[in-house]
Amino acid sequence: MSVPAVPERLNAAEALVDVHVAEGRGARPAILCGERTVTYGDLHEGVSRFAGVLGDLGVRMEERVAILLPDTPEFAFTFFGSMKAGAVAIPLNTLLAPREYEYLLNDSRARVLVVHASLLDRIEAVRANLRYLEHTLVAGGGAAGGGAAGGAPAAAAA
Question: What is the pLDDT of residue 141?
Fold first, then answer.
């Protein structure tokens, strides 16, 4: 039995998202969310766009990006986009209390938080105590920073 060679560099976003576009499946559905269908091409674009946002913010390899989003395509964009940028994605439970977010964000040393507009008040309640958080990006619209549906979250505070 032979063991496959381990690549020198492996990026999970490339292996799980980009490969579908490279192999001609860009027009096929990747995510079905209510009435919304996201193709592999759309997913690839959203992931790459978010990775670019992180690069613009100066996020470096292995730095933490916390994600406080419901189960939507934007969660996938930020989760895989963080990986594509070389950051560590930290998904957070959407049902926690502000003090629990304070603990998790400080313990993880997250530099960036992507939060849905409907959950922003929980973060604002403890924002002054978040020692490492430099950037808060809001997804879902209707709050400071907006964030268009289907796109990368917008910056709310830096």
Answer: 67
